[in-house]
Design brief:
about 500 residues, alpha/beta, Rossmann fold, Hect, E3 ligase catalytic domain fold, 4 domains, 4-stranded parallel sheet, 3-stranded mixed sheet, 16 strands, about 45% helix, about 15% strand, extended
Length: about 500
C-alpha cells in the first residue's frame, strides 16, 4: 500500500495546505490504493509527530511499500532524523518519492541528491530560527509586549510604541495590594516563602482562583516587572553583571522593568541577574525600589543560608556571612565548651572554604552593637531623619479594602431585577460593607502616620538593648544593616543608611 504523508506547521495564506499536498501526491500514486498520514501544527525539526510515528509503525509492520510527500522538508528538516528514516525505508524495501522534486531513491545519484537537499532543508530551518530569535531580541529591546502569561498584579491593555500597535501591563488594584503585601512580609528577617503561603492559606487568599505555592511567591519576588525602577535599581543590575538597555537618566522611579536572558546565554540560576538584559517597561511599577531591592538581595542570599534553620543562637544569624566565601555563618553552641561560635556553613557542609577563623558570638555581637550605636550618632549629626520601614498591617487593610470594593460591585450588579426581599438584603449588606470601609480607612490613616521610624526611636531601642526580645533585636539590626562579612581579622558592615 502507498502512504501519503503531509505536514503543515503554521496555517498561513502563503503556505501549502495539507489538502493541497495530498492532492498533488495522489497523482504520483497513479490510482493505486493509498492511506494519508497528516500532522497539522507540528514542526519538521524533529520526528515527534503522531501521524509520522503511526506511519513508521505501519512500515515496520509491512503494510506500506511506498511513501509519497509533496516536498522533502514536509517529512524532515533534520539530517540525523532523515538518515534514520531512510535507513528504516531501505531495511523494509520502501520506495520514497517527492512529488515536486522527482527523486529516484533506486539510484546512487538520486540518493546523493536527496541527502544534499536535506542538508539545505536543515540550513533553512536553522536560518528561520535565527531570524525569529533576532526579531524577538530586537522587539524586546524596544519594550514591546513579547507574550507569555500575564504576571499577577497586572492586566494587559493595548498601547502604541514607536507607531506600532502592541500591548502593555496595567496594575489591577486588588492584586497589586497583595503583591505589596508579599514584598513587605518577605522583607522581614524571619519570613520565608512558606510563611507567606501559610498566611494566605489560613485566610483563604487565592491567586486567581488557585492556591498559592512557594514557587509562585519566589517568581513574584524575583521579577523586576513590579519595581519602581530608579538609579538604585540601575546600579544593582550593573553591579551584578546585567546589561541595561536604557540610560541611567531614564530610571526615575516610576516604570517597571522587563528582564530577558542575554542573547545566546545558557540558562542560569533564577536568582542570578548576570548576563540578563534589562529593559524599562512602559507600565508603572507597584513596589518601591528600596523594598524591592531588600527582597531581591534576600532572594539572592538564600543559596548562602540554611533555610530550614530558624535563628536562635544569635540575632546576627542570616545577616552575618563568611568573609572568605560569602556563605552564611552559623551560630553553634557546644556542650563541652563555654563559648558560642560563628562557623562557616560552607566549610561545615563541604569543606570548600578555609573558614572565617575563630569568631566568638558574644564578641561579634558586642562589636556590631557598638557600631550600630556609633552609626546612629553619626547619622544624627549629619542630618535628622527618619528611616522608612514596611507597614504590613497597612497593606493587609488595603488588600481587604480592595476586596470589599469588589464585593460591593458584585452586589450592585444584582440589584437590577431583584425582588423587594433581595433588594433589602443587598442594601443592608452594602451598608455593612460601607461601614467596614470607613473603619478601615480610619485605621489606614493612623498607620500612615507611623510609616517612618525616627532615628531617636531606634536609638531608644539601642539604649534598652538588653530589654528587647530576640525578634526585636533582629528587626532593628535588619533596619540598619544590609549584610555583615566577618573573618577573624576583619569585620565589614554594609549599612542601609
Amino acid at each position: 500500500m502507498i502512504a501519503i504523508y503531509a505536514r503543515q506547521s503554521v496555517d498561513r495564506v502563503d503556505s501549502i495546505s495539507i489538502e493541497q499536498q495530498v492532492e498533488t501526491c495522489k497523482y504520483e500514486a497513479r490510482g493505486e490504493a493509498f492511506k494519508s498520514y497528516t500532522d497539522k501544527g507540528y514542526s519538521g525539526k524533529n520526528t515527534n509527530r503522531p501521524q509520522f510515528t503511526q506511519m513508521m509503525n505501519d512500515i515496520k509492520a509491512g503494510y506500506i511499500n511506498t511513501v509519497i510527500v509533496y516536498k522533502l522538508d514536509r517529512i524532515s528538516r533534520s539530517i540525523l532524523d532523515f538518515s534514520n528514516m531512510m535507513e528504516t525505508f531501505n531495511k523494509h524495501k520502501v520506495q520514497f518519492i517527492s512529488a515536486t522534486e522527482k527523486f529516484d531513491t533506486s539510484s546512487p545519484m538520486g540518493n546523493a541528491m536527496l541527502n544534499i537537499c536535506i542538508v539545505f532543508a536543515q540550513l533553512e530551518r536553522e536560518t528561520i530560527q535565527k531570524r525569529v530569535a533576532d526579531a524577538y531580541y530586537s522587539r524586546s529591546l524596544k519594550s514591546f509586549y513579547m507574550g507569555g502569561p500575564i504576571p499577577f498584579g497586572f492586566r494587559k491593555v493595548p498601547t502604541i510604541i514607536d507607531g506600532i500597535h502592541t500591548s502593555m501591563y496595567e496594575p489591577v488594584p486588588e492584586e497589586e495590594n497583595l503583591v505589596r503585601l508579599i514584598y513587605e512580609m518577605y522583607s522581614q528577617p524571619n519570613t520565608s516563602y512558606g510563611d507567606i503561603v501559610k498566611y494566605f492559606v489560613e485566610r483563604g487568599i487565592k491567586k486567581r482562583g488557585t492556591n498559592w505555592a512557594r514557587p509562585r511567591i519566589r517568581e513574584i519576588l524575583l521579577n523586576p516587572i513590579y519595581v519602581k525602577a530608579d538609579l538604585d535599581v540601575y546600579n544593582f543590575y550593573v553591579n551584578n553583571g546585567a546589561e541595561i538597555t536604557n540610560p541611567p537618566a531614564d530610571f526615575i522611579g516610576e516604570n517597571g522593568c522587563y528582564s530577558y536572558r542575554g542573547k545566546g546565554d545558557k540558562k542560569k540560576s533564577a536568582s542570578s541577574v548576570e548576563g540578563y538584559q534589562i529593559v524599562l517597561a512602559p507600565h508603572k511599577g507597584i513596589v518601591d525600589s528600596e523594598l524591592w531591592l531588600k527582597c531581591r538581595e534576600k532572594c539572592m542570599s538564600q543559596k548562602q543560608m540554611i533555610p530550614s534553620q530558624k535563628a536562635k543562637n544569635s540575632w546576627l544569624c542570616g545577616k552575618i556571612k563568611c568573609g572568605e566565601c560569602g556563605y552564611a555563618l552559623a551560630a553553634k553552641v557546644f556542650k563541652s565548651r563555654p563559648n558560642r561560635y560563628l562557623l562557616c556553613s560552607n566549610r561545615m557542609n563541604s569543606k570548600a572554604c578555609i573558614g572565617a577563623g575563630t569568631l566568638y558570638i558574644d564578641e561579634v555581637e558586642n562589636l556590631v552593637y557598638n557600631e550600630m550605636k556609633n552609626k546612629l550618632e553619626m547619622f544624627r549629626k549629619l542630618s535628622y531623619s527618619k528611616i522608612s520601614y514596611p507597614n504590613i498591617k497597612q497593606t493587609e487593610l488595603e488588600t481587604e479594602l480592595a476586596e470589599i470594593d469588589k464585593q460591593i460591585k458584585g452586589l450592585l450588579e444584582k440589584v437590577e431585577g431583584s425582588d423587594n426581599a433581595l433588594f433589602r438584603y443587598i442594601n443592608e449588606k452594602i451598608s455593612d460593607l460601607d461601614q467596614r470601609k470607613s473603619d478601615i480607612n480610619e485605621r489606614i490613616k493612623e498607620l500612615k502616620q507611623k510609616k517612618e521610624i525616627p532615628v531617636d526611636k531606634i536609638d531608644n531601642h539601642l539604649t534598652m538593648w538588653e530589654e528587647l526580645s530576640f525578634d526585636d533585636k533582629r528587626q532593628v539590626t535588619d533596619t540598619l544593616i544590609r549584610a555583615i562579612y566577618a573573618t577573624e581579622e576583619k569585620i565589614t558592615i554594609q549599612w542601609r543608611i
